[in-house]
Fold this protein.
Amino acid sequence: MATTTLLKLLLAPLLILVATLAGRRWGPAVGGWLAGLPLTSGPVSFILAIEQGSEFAARAALGTLFGLVSLAVFSLAYGAVARRAGWAGCVAAALGAFGASTLAFRGAALPPGLAFTLVCVVLGTVGTVMGGGAPPRPPPRLLPGDLTIRMALAALLVLFLTSLAASLGPALAGSLSPLPVFGAVLAVFAHRDQGAPAAVQLLRGMVLGSFGFATFMLVVSGLLDRWAIAPTYALASASALGVHGVTLAVVRRAT
């Protein structure tokens, strides 16, 4: 119990710290691309496997695949509203779109391969639609408090989802785990500091970077009920990183 609690409190925030600092170095699109990694959903899935069992975590991973459709809808809605509203209105609209999409896919039942194909089509379509736009303003100096907020939100999300997983059930727990807390926080800071184009670039980078995320969940949902936890998550992580590296070229060429 002490080990899983430590994972909840430290793993996702540490991953987000690394991604935030790297994103500041190479711009909002690359920052969003890094946010496309399963920085919170990966730790959530691993902890669910330890606490709730492999079958529960495998079913939750399939729900997370459908949740990536909602993540893409979130990003698309934010980008559409950003043309005429501030960050608060954008977040409200995007969260509403995420919630509607999550409810629509709550009872969805497809084999992992078909679910993965659907997610890839949606991610590719949204990434294409969100292309173009004006260049963002240069970023201001990063304040230590910004990092603290982002890391704290990541820890809270992991604690919330893993604590309520049993009552939510694997499908809903999985569908909610891609809730883009990290992406939303990054987008709000980018929107505030560099303007709407920076937020849109960041969210588009996150969408295009989510192919590796989808690959991670495909491996977990397909293998966890047959393999042990450690090798399943090792292969899922390696596969996700490999796909993620390929998408970096697409993100950098598009900015």
Remarks:
- The chain has a mean pLDDT of 84.
